Amino acid sequence: MLACKGKHVLILDDLWDKLSPEEVGIPEPSNGSKLLVTTRLLDVCHYLDCREVRVPTLSKPDAWRLFLAKIGQDVFNHLDLLPFVKSVAEECAGLPLAIVTIASSMKGARNLHEWRNALHELKRHVKSVNVIEEKVFQQLQFSY
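The structure assignment produced for this chain is given below.
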């Protein structure tokens, strides 16, 4: 169907393994169409012969602002929580998806034990194939 259509953009988001576009029915773009792939794994880019564009993680100040925007500014009314809130935010490692997901899951939590437990869960080690996957899985596993 894509081969018959005019120009198009096909986005494959968050690939975790090598993929043969032809095997899954994606024709090689020849009519000006584009294939956009997002991945954390450089091997996937190399396998697909993609042009690599690196997207950096958020800076610490930007990550903190995003975390606060999702969790709510009223957390400053609970000064005993702030060290734990900051530590949880730092565990997100500047990854926007992790920040949004974890902050949203902790929104409204104003109990010291909840924050202490959240920090403990985020610091737990998760077995994985590589360090990047481990960090991402660890953060997302916590949120779910």
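Interim note for the steering committee: Residues 18 and 44 are 5 Å apart (CA to CA). Residues 60-143 form one domain.
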